[in-house]
Design a protein that fits this description.
About 15% of the residues lie in helices and about 35% in strands. It contains two helices and twelve strands. It has a single domain, classed as Jelly Rolls, CATH 2.60.120. Strands 1, 3, 4, 7, 8, 9, 10 and 11 form an eight-stranded antiparallel beta sheet that branches. It is α+β, with helices and mostly antiparallel strands. Pfam families: Cupin_2. This is Cupin domain-containing protein. Keywords: Signal.
Length: about 160
């Protein structure tokens, strides 16, 4: 009797997992191969200098996270901005600078990870002499927003390491 009950329970669990698995696999994995995504030369209304964005993925409901490679040539940087749910940057090559409003400019290198909390005003980009590439990862809020662009980072702010 114990053996029969164990087998019956196992079969019921397997059947339940199979039924659940069919629902979970109704959507299929998506492969986005290297070279299949277009590079975007980012407009000057949010950046200074030459910046190129290579989207990796965009959020597909119910997911809310997107990511992209962002390449900053020497002297290029983002405008001041915030993220409603924060942002994570993973520096993949080169050397760059990151800075919070009223904070000290910090130098970042390949392998460094920067986690910017929600609502923190900041900028990031290449140094004045080196290219920097990072993966930018951010989550969209319920309105689909993932960034709030603010004013330009002036040349004076960019080149000095002090507070702003």
């Amino acid at each position: 009797m114990i053996r029969f009950t164990s087998v019956t329970v196992s079969l019921l669990l397997f059947a339940g997992m199979s039924a659940h698995g069919e629902t979970a696999t109704s959507a299929q994995m998506k492969l986005s191969e290297t070279g299949s995504r277009a590079t975007i030369a980012e407009p000057a209304n949010h950046f200074t200098g030459r910046v190129y964005i290579d989207p990796l993925f965009s959020p597909v409901a119910p997911q809310r996270v997107g990511a992209a490679y962002v390449t900053f040539v020497p002297g290029a940087r983002s405008d001041w901005h915030t993220h409603p749910l924060g942002q994570t940057l993973v520096v993949t090559s080169g050397t760059g600078w990151v800075q919070e409003w009223h904070g000290e400019r910090k130098t970042v290198h390949a392998g460094d990870v920067i986690q910017c909390p929600p609502g923190v005003k900041h900028w990031h980009g290449a140094t004045d002499k080196t290219t920097m590439v990072h993966i930018a990862i951010q989550e969209s809020n319920d309105k689909g927003e993932n960034v709030n662009w603010l004013e330009k980072v002036s040349d004076e702010q960019y080149l000095q390491a002090g507070e702003h």
